[in-house]
Amino acid sequence: MALFTAAAALPAQATTGSAAVVSSVAPAAAGQSFTASGLALTVDRDGYTITKPAPKPVITKTAPASQAAPTGATPASTKQSVPTTTGGTIVNTGIGDIRWPVAGTITVSSPFGPRSAPCATCSSIHQGADLTPGAGTPIGAVAAGTVRVSTTHPEYGQYVIIDHQIDGRLVSTLYAHMIFGSSPLRPGDTVAVGQLVGLVGNTGASTGAHLHLQVMPGGTTPIDPIPWLTANAGRTL
């Protein structure tokens, strides 16, 4: 299984090489795989497989809608409480006001946390999780919110940061390494949950197509996005 990683202290980076042994105090898993719409979260560590129940968000992968919602309209697939959006295709039509960014079965090629630096300029602390659903896969906004950043970066490549209000608190999500020009979003845009953010790519400091995803409560401090999504995806706010 390919290993795709993203940097932290120096932003996201990835690798497709074999899993490296983590020498830090809290070693990260060599690889994880799960089905966002399934019943089990499976983690494979050194030949031992652990399966535990996970929430069952109904997330399906559908073709993009043929026509974007008009400016100022709220997409029919979202709740009326969602802010008025600037329009855009809904690419993840699962249920709930919080959703996984991509549908179906995906692989976490590099988990959050300490790791052996995969290259000379890579960080040993990974501030997100690298998801590998395949090059060109549409990425949907994890929740409704406002675009803070939509630009390019030497390490992140094409990336977007969206600020959300969840349970009365600011939570931000970051989506990196997308295909150049694939994001229609601009700073200040309001987006609906599941609205197209961009397409999975291999831009910036990346050695394979993947989505580097970060979840940042308070807008700045990253946490592990996988358990956060496992606990929150499918919720109604």
UniProtKB/TrEMBL annotation:
Q: Where is the M23ase beta-sheet core domain?
A: 125-225
Quick check: keyword Cytoplasm in the entry? no
Domain of life, per UniProt, equals Bacteria
Offer one Pfam family short name for this entry: Peptidase_M23
Record's compositionally biased regions (Polar residues): 63-83
Q: Which GO terms describe its molecular function?
A: hydrolase activity
Q: Which InterPro entries does this UniProt record tie to the protein?
A: Cell_wall_metabolism_enzyme (IPR050570), Dup_hybrid_motif (IPR011055), M23ase_b-sheet_dom (IPR016047)
Q: Does the keyword Hydrolase apply?
A: yes
Location of region: Disordered:
51-90
Q: Which UniProt keywords apply?
A: Hydrolase
Q: EC?
A: 3.4.-.-
CDD domains registered for this protein in UniProt: M23_peptidase (cd12797)
Give the protein name, as stated in the record: M23 family metallopeptidase
Natural source organism: Curtobacterium caseinilyticum
